[in-house]
Amino acid sequence: MKITILGTGMVGQTVASKLFKLGHIVTMGTRNPEETKQRTQANQITGESFSDWFKKQEGIKLTNLEESALEADFVINATSGQASIDVLKKVGEANLSGKVLLDIANPLDFSQGMPPSLFVSNTDSLGEQIQKEFPELKVVKSLNTMNMLIMMNPESIPGNHNVFVSGNDANAKEKVSGLLKSIGWKQENIIDLGDITTARGTEMLLPIWLRLWTALGHANFNFHIQQSK
Amino acid sequence: MKITILGTGMVGQTVASKLFKLGHIVTMGTRNPEETKQRTQANQITGESFSDWFKKQEGIKLTNLEESALEADFVINATSGQASIDVLKKVGEANLSGKVLLDIANPLDFSQGMPPSLFVSNTDSLGEQIQKEFPELKVVKSLNTMNMLIMMNPESIPGNHNVFVSGNDANAKEKVSGLLKSIGWKQENIIDLGDITTARGTEMLLPIWLRLWTALGHANFNFHIQQSK
């Protein structure tokens, strides 16, 4: 597929590398491609800058937001939650119309310090806000409940653990589930929670995720729904 | 121990029966014991009324709130979230001072229909509100992330699954963990998240819990944090 990834941070990079390796035509969208290519600030986890990372990628395209989704079959929102709607507006409603958006962003609010709270929650969600702003876009919330390495490499956690899917369009959810399976997620571990309002549930997992990170001392964990047979 | 359970609903009944079977001296506190004993409305899950349930209990005491915690070593809040602080005020700050409160209530708001939202979340929690209102009470939030049958019978779900503990007082958390182990929770499955502010994380699990209940079609599940070794 022709996949456009919005966001050039660590999550965007991890997703882009993996999907390119899987054989997709990958385009990353950013406000100013020339400026992004020159970013030399090392990221906190890999220690690598976007500039150094991008030099090693052969075949991943970097374009401005306006052009990024023109040919896309599939769009992934890997921007920060606070930037998401603004970025999508720059991509352009007409360019997004009818397409599937896999939304992996979380509405984290760092303005009050650590751990972040959520800038929308409980009676609304970022997934719903995006769907409301772009009614012709088929928003599917998924993958937002774990660290980026597990998202793209579920085998890094032993045993069964879950990925959740929320969205209004059944075909769009099927397309996302197909992509998840190609990444390595087992069908039995993909839980369809229902319509996009169920994104409230997965976005509200972030507060315990952040506290587990502190309590366990690492981020190599994921939620598993353990059921009685 | 002498354990006082506040709340006579399904959760209170399930907790009381189990702890009585484990050999504790169990008192249930309610606003009007005579009225409570005459409740004939069947509950939604067991189909049994409080009146019928209570007739079968030999040895569990039922008292008014003011007297309920006088001799208690340990108090459990199994009231509805919206009633919790009012009920604790009626129990009396002096009667609670210095005691451990295991808070299993959730701040569910049913006023906007189903599924309920939370009346406090994100930057505060019911656990914190109780701790703030009763500074001399040692509040430990736990068991609020699963159905009542799993709380008191963790073996009903196969394999490993977790119970979380949040609270400011290390000794109080140890006392709660000891009770959890006596109920059947394995030490390795008890996760201490940190101070009482971490109750935000566990209370905010309710929105996904409610949606999983719908998506899976049953409530016989619990969260497990699957980690890489």
TrEMBL record, chains A, B:
Residues 2-107 form the Pyrroline-5-carboxylate reductase catalytic N-terminal domain. InterPro entries: NAD(P)-bd_dom_sf (IPR036291), P5C_Rdtase_cat_N (IPR028939), STEAP_metalloreductase (IPR051267). One of its GO terms (molecular function) is oxidoreductase activity. It holds the Pfam family F420_oxidored. Keywords: Oxidoreductase. It comes from the Bacteria. This is NAD(P)-binding domain-containing protein. It comes from Fulvivirga marina. The lineage of its organism: Bacteria, Pseudomonadati, Bacteroidota, Cytophagia, Cytophagales.
